[in-house]
Amino acid sequence: MTEELFRTDAYLKSCEATVTKVDELGIRLDRTNFYPMGGGQPGDTGTITLGNGQAIRIADTRKGPEAGEIIHVPAPDQPKAEVGSKVTAAIDWDRRHRHMRVHTALHLLSAVIVGSVTGGQIGDGKGRLDFDLPDTALDKDAIEQKINELVAADHKTGTQWITDEEMDQRPDLVKTMSVKPPRGAGRVRLLEIPGVDLQACGGTHVAHTAEIGRLQVVKIENKGKHNRRVNIALAE
After folding, report:
1. Range 166-173 contact pairs with CB under 8 angstroms and sequence separation of 24 or more
2. Which domain holds residue 143?
3. Residue 16 to residues 21, 91, 104, 140: CA-CA distances in angstroms?
4. Does one domain contain both 48 and 129?
5. Which pTM value belongs to this model?
6. DSSP 8-state secondary structure symbol assigned to residue 44
7. How far apart are CA 32 and CA 18, in angstroms?
8. What is the pLDDT of residues 175-210, one digit of tens each?
9. Pairwise CA distance, residues 173 & 164, whole Å
10. What CA–CA distances, in Å, run from 47 to 27, 44, 97, 101, 212?
11. CB atoms inside a 10 Å sphere around CB 32
């Protein structure tokens, strides 16, 4: 299993690690700060620098076929890593930080709009949530005002952990019907924005809502009889 450093420190820009496996899928490390694609959030990009100074450009990060395995996918025609070698893994921080801002913003959006979340996606500077709201008209301007009020209030975010058994007893902690929180290690991580939101989530988030910056509700779409898709973007 790969030690997932991003779970406890989303601001960790680089780390020292050891290469444990290299094959056609990519590079495995014993520990990493690279987030693998999941929960609607894209996988990180960045570099893995070898001991001789050569940098391997990482084009994507994915979960591997084995439980707890994270694969760093090199771009084409990169230097080769050797099993057992010591490396430095560095994420594309600016891109990751935009993902963190958007991901946290979507938590605020799910608090502003009352309804089951049927899906979502995080992009570079933008994101969306789909809500099961068959008979509800959504006011774009009102949603934008409310979500920006939560941003400006500078709520602190934090994480806590509960056991799988506790999670089974609290189905209300899973808001997104189509995405299940990471499980299998005996515990589940929760993101808490005190007084605003508490839900199971394995993604990366900013420490304070003011760090998100001003948000725009770009558009609201009807996606079928039940789904209402709310698209947001970072204003800066």
Report:
1. 167/200, 173/198, 173/199, 173/200
2. 96-234
3. 16, 12, 27, 45
4. no
5. 0.92
6. P
7. 9
8. 765 556 665 567 888 899 999 998 888 899 999 999
9. 12
10. 12, 10, 16, 22, 25
11. 25
